[in-house]
Amino acid sequence: MYVGGPEGSWSEGERHDAVEKSLSEGGARLGTLRIDSGIYAATMAVGDRIIAGAPAVVIVFHDTIALTTQPPLTSIALKAAEAARLAVRIVVSGQVSEMLTAQRIALKGELVELETADSAAL
Fold first, then answer.
1. For residue range 15-66, what is the model confidence (pLDDT) as tens digits?
2. CA-to-CA distance for 82 and 63, rounded, in angstroms?
3. Are 67 and 75 a contacting pair, CB within 8 Å?
4. Sheet containing 2-4: which strands, arranged edge to edge?
5. How many angstroms separate the CA atoms of 109 and 112, rounded?
6. Domain spans in the chain, listed from the N-terminal domain onward
7. Which of 59, 64, 57, 55 is nearest to 118 (CA)?
8. Fewest CB atoms within 10 Å of the CB: 1, 47, 50, 104?
9. Reported pTM
10. CA–CA separation, 65 vs 122, rounded Å?
């Protein structure tokens, strides 16, 4: 099950597309559950809906959802502060010109194992 964020959220769209592409390459599909807003109460309420679906796998668009469900979901956390420092360093070093060009920079994620992790499967 893919648990997506609010309609129109840029980050939700990017993550959803990446999940769909990865799954389609492996011939797999996931059902989708959407959280209507990004507020804390909405993320707390989605836990029961996830459990009711009895999924074997849950992929969520944001760590907040993973941490606020019961039980908390294992996640891969990205370092926002590291990303911000890197962005500032690129701008300050003059690597950004007035003619912006797309540049992909990959940052390492960190596996955050919580109650739902099956260490043997990881």
1. 888 888 888 887 877 788 888 776 667 777 777 788 788 877 787 777 777 7
2. 16
3. yes
4. 32-34, 2-4, 59-60
5. 9
6. 2-78
7. 57
8. 104
9. 0.60
10. 21
